[in-house]
Amino acid sequence: MRVGSVAAQPAFARTTRCSRVMAAKSSSFDDGWMRALVDAGQAHVLQHWDALNERERTVLRQDVESVDLRRIERLFRTSMDSGDSAGKVEPVQEVFSYEKRSENERRLKKLGLQLIAEGKVAVILLAGGQGTRLGSTKPKGCYDIGLPSGKSLFQLQAERIQRMQTLAAEHMGLEEVKRPIKWYIMTSSFTEEETRQFFVQHRFFGLEPSQVTFFSQGSLPCLTPEGKLILKTSFELAWAPDGNGGIYRALKTSGCLEEMQHDGVECIDCFSVDNALARVCDPVFLGACVEQNAECGARVLAKAYPEEKVGVFAIRDGKLEVVEYSELPPSEAAATDPLTGQLRFNWSNICMHFFTPAFLDRVCDILEAQGLYHVAQKSIPSVDGPIPGIKLELFIFDSFPLAKHTLLVEVKREEEFSPVKNAPGSAMDSPDTARASILALHSRWIREAGGIPDGESVEVSPLLSYAGEGLVDICTGQKISNLSSIGP
Fold this sequence. Notes:
Layout: H1 17-26, H2 32-39, H3 54-65, H4 69-81, E1 89-91, H5 98-103, H6 105-117, E2 121-126, H7 153-171, E3 182-187, H8 192-201, E4 212-216, E5 219-221, E6 231-233, E7 236-237, E8 239-241, H9 247-254, H10 256-262, E9 267-272, H11 283-291, E10 296-302, E11 312-316, E12 319-323, H12 330-334, E13 347-355, H13 357-370, E14 374-380, E15 387-393, E16 406-410, H14 413-416, H15 431-448, E17 452-453, H16 472-475, E18 479-480
Parallel strand pairs: 2-3, 2-9, 3-4, 10-16, 17-18
Antiparallel strand pairs: 1-11, 5-8, 6-7, 9-13, 10-13, 11-12, 14-15
Helix pairs in contact: 6-7, 6-11
C-alpha cells in the first residue's frame, strides 16, 4: 500500500446476500452492465433500482458503464497489497547548482531559446484544482491575487509565454517563432468547462486560440476499505480525481501526447497553476536538461528550514524519487552534511518538471501496468452519510524512478516559487505572500535597471519583461510607479 494502512478484504469476488438477491433480480434484465456489477461483487450499487425514475436509472447506468470494473479491481488489489516503500533512503548528491547554472547561463539560454524558436517546446499546466481554500469556487487559475493590474494566475502565465516567444524570435533574428508554444492545460471534471469559458471570455489573453489545448485528468470511483463502490446518491457513484499523476494516462487517451510527437516537440515544461512566480519555459532550465540528455528533470529549492513540510528528492534503491516530509524521522530531516553545511535531505520538490515526449509515452504504459496507486483514507460523502473510504491517486513524481537520466536544477525561491494555497491573510503560501513576492521581485528589477520604484506596489507586465530584461531604457534615472499594463 503506497499510503495509509487499511486492511484489504477479498470483496470483489465475495458472494453476499445482497449480491444473490440482485443476481436473481438482474436475471430479468438483458442489460450487460447489471450482470457485470453482479459478477464483480458490486451488486449493492443496484439496491435502490426499484425506487429510481427513468432519468435516475439512466444516470446510474451511464455512471457504471464509465467504470472499467476489472481495472478498478486490479488497481485496488495491487495498491492495497503493495506495502510501504522499502529500501534505505539516501540524500541526492548531484544537483545542478545555482552557481553552476549562472556560470553556464549564456550557453544554456541560447540553446533553450533556439528550441523555443524552432517550435520544439510545449508547456503543460496542472490546473485541475478549485480555489476552495482561497474562498473561491472557481478554478484556481482564475484567481486574482490582488496585484495592481488585477491579473489572474492564468493571465500572468499566458503573458509569460507570449514574452518568451518574443525573446526567442528576437534571439534567432526572426519576426516570430516557427511555431507558437503549445500550451496544454490539464483541467478536471470540476474545472474544465469554467476554465474554457474563462479563456474565451478573456480572448485567450492574447494567445492564439489554436495554441491552447484543454484536456481533463481522469477520475476514479471512491471505494470502501473492502473495495466496494460507494454510492454518492441512490443513483450516482462517488468519484474523485486520480491525482496529478493522472496526467500520464490523460495525455495519452486525449491524443495530446500523439499531437506533440507529430508536431516535433522535443521537450516539455510542466508546472502547477498555483505558482505565481513560475518562469514558464525558462530557456536556461530547458537548455540544461537538453544538454545533459535528461528525459526527466525538475527545478528544486533548498529547504527553508528542517521542519518545512515539503517533499524532498532522495535516492532509494538507486532510483530518484520524492520522499514526503512525514516519511523522514526528525533526526534525519535535521541532519546536515559536514562538508557543505547544508541539510542532507535539502532539495525540495516544487512541481516544476521537464519531460521528453518519448519518456511520457513510455512511463504511461509502465505505470498503468504496475497499477500502484497511493491510498488516501478519506471520509466520503455517501447516500448513507459520510463513511470511511479510500481514494486512489497517482502523483506526477511517481514516474521519476522510471527515468534513465534525470537532472535536478537549483533555482531561487524569490525568483521562481511563490505558491497560492492558503486563504487570504495566512502567513504562508497565500495570495498576500504571492503578491508580495511578485512586487518585491519587480522592484528589484527596476532598481537593477537604474530606476527607482515609487512605493512597494510597482508591478511589471510579463509582456514587457520575463526576468528583468528590457527595462534599462525605460527605468534609468526614472521614478517608476507602474509598468503593469505596458506591453510591446
